[in-house]
Structure to design on (93 residues):
């Protein structure tokens, strides 16, 4: 049995109120299998309730962006995951 780690991607529009965030995606990493993948919501109603000014085009493109980056970093997944921790202020892992 292989163990996996998951990481939640959150939308945080106001850094001074991090408790006001919405989960918008998840990463699943299995180090033994050298596997990393992601899945994101396409329903941003909760995000819009939290932040009516949210850039939905940006949020909608995140899954494709991360899928491409995972493909480009498949030989260094652990290092790539470490880099994700400092991805953005608006979108946090």
């Amino acid at each position: 049995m292989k163990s996996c780690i998951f990481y939640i991607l959150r939308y945080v529009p106001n850094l001074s109120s991090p408790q006001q965030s919405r989960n918008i995606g998840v990463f699943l990493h299995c180090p033994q299998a050298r596997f990393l993948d992601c899945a994101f919501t396409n329903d941003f109603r909760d995000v819009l309730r939290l932040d009516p000014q949210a850039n939905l085009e940006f949020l909608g493109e995140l899954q494709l962006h991360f899928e491409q980056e995972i493909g480009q970093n498949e030989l260094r997944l652990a290092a790539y995951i470490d880099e994700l921790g400092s991805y953005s202020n608006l979108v946090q892992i």
